[in-house]
Amino acid sequence: MIKPASLRQLLLSAVPNLQDNPERLLMFIDQGRLAARGTRKLAFEYRYKLNIVVQDYAGAIDDIMVPILAWISEAQPDLLERDEREPFSFDSELMDANSADVSIDIELTEAVLVERKPGGGFDVVHVPEPSRCDAFPGVEETANLWQLLLRDEIEPSVTTIPE
């Protein structure tokens, strides 16, 4: 699974409080499932809840939520189209007047194709999410929410999750 590592990298680089304290960011995969069909082509989908825990967080909660929303717009855009319009849930335990433990749950999927290699073996390909560019006045159509909120400059050729 590649999405948790991608989100971890983003949070560590985008959330000031975590840059100096990366040990405060914990991630867990809960309720993991594997969906597959009995077809001629071997493919499957990981389905799981990603639980993100930020311990002893003393920054603005928006500094966590905005990068996650921007990441979701690229990595799991269908969450922004749910009927409830609630792409994830969160809980927070207030530790004192200045800090809290924050727990965030995101339902994620990752489609995987398995391709046979000539001569034996196989390659595994994680299928990227379909690109859904948001249109903003005065901004190129290839720019997306991720680029607008979190990158210093817009790079039109970048349409995938950073590694």
List the helices and strands and how they pair.
Elements: H1 3-14, H2 16-19, E1 25-36, E2 43-57, H3 62-75, E3 89-94, E4 100-116, E5 122-126, H4 145-150
Antiparallel strand pairs: 1-2, 2-4, 3-4, 4-5
The second-level CATH architecture is 2-Layer Sandwich
Give me the secondary-structure category. alpha+beta
Overall number of structural domains: 1
| Record field, number of beta strands | 5
For the terminal residues, how far apart are their CA atoms?
A: 13 Å
The total of helices stands at: 4
Protein name: Phage tail protein
InterPro entries: Phage_tail_completion_R (IPR009678)
Organism: Sphingomonas hylomeconis
Structure description:
Strands 1, 2, 3, 4 and 5 form a five-stranded antiparallel β-sheet that branches. The protein has helices at 3-14, 16-19, 62-75, 145-150, and strands at residues 25-36, 43-57, 89-94, 100-116, 122-126. It has one domain (3-150): STM4215-like (2-Layer Sandwich). It contains four helices and five strands. A hairpin with a 5-residue loop joins strand 4 and strand 5. It is of the alpha+beta class and 163 residues long. Pfam families: P2_Phage_GpR (PF06891). This is Phage tail protein. InterPro entries: Phage_tail_completion_R.
